[in-house]
Write a structure and sequence with these properties.
Helix 2 crosses helix 3. This protein starts with a strand and ends in a 9-residue tail after the last strand. The longest helix is centred in the N-terminal third of the chain and has 18 residues. Helix content is 41%, strand content 14%. 43% of the residues are buried. The protein has a single domain, classed as Rossmann fold. It has a 6-stranded mixed β-sheet, sandwiched between helices. It is α/β, with parallel strands linked by helices.
Length: 201
């Protein structure tokens, strides 16, 4: 069994910036999301003994994982580089408008689902998929229950690989920051975190 969580909302999320391997601090809402996911995990896993807890080493994911650890009574998360977000190379940290000014031909006809893979010096879908598949295959073969904190695109690809989805379907999966995904017995279940008060709602 794997519980998969996306990091909480960040300042770059608010600004509409593609983070990639850049980093950005969690917002107050992002910290609330992480705490709510941690509280949910505490009810889901019960005794944390025997659970392997891993996180992307990027700051926003590790900050989320540390909040989750405190809420759920878990030990410190183990940094796992294969869980990192896709790198967009020189586009990391930019907005879509900034990317369009920088390289209009590269993004002509791009959608919000494939722009990540168009950066000329970026990681690319094949490389991303290979490293995530390596982690997923290892986790399944190992058999121990795991908790993993990852990212938006990486989380979509992980769930798509687990479910055997094709690229188009995989990349259009939702990537909320206030749920826990349970991957078990070949199925994926989305479990809502505790109620969070969002601004304007």
């Amino acid at each position: 069994m794997i519980y998969l969580i996306r990091h909480g909302r960040t300042e770059f999320n608010v600004e509409g910036r593609y983070q990639g391997h850049c980093d950005s601090a969690l917002t107050p809402l992002g910290r609330e999301q992480a705490a709510a996911n941690g509280a949910l995990l505490k009810t889901l896993i019960g005794d944390p003994t025997g659970w392997r807890f891993e996180s992307s080493p990027l700051g926003r994911a590790m900050d989320t994982a540390n909040i989750i650890a405190a809420e759920a009574g878990l030990g410190a998360p183990i940094p796992e580089p294969r869980l990192r977000e896709i790198s967009m190379g020189g586009w990391d940290g930019l907005t879509e408008e900034e990317i369009s000014h920088l390289d209009p031909e590269a993004v002509r006809g791009a959608t919000r689902y494939d722009i990540f893979f168009r950066a000329p010096d970026g990681e690319g879908l094949e490389t991303l998929t290979a490293r995530l598949k390596s982690w997923l295959d290892e986790a399944i073969a190992d058999g121990r229950p795991r908790i993993a904190v990852s990212h938006g695109v990486s989380g979509r690809v992980l769930r798509g690989l687990y479910a055997g989805l094709d690229r188009e379907v995989m990349l259009k999966l939702p990537s909320p920051q206030d749920v826990v995904f349970r991957l078990a017995d070949g199925r994926i279940e989305e479990i809502a975190a505790l109620a969070i008060t969002r601004p304007g709602r």
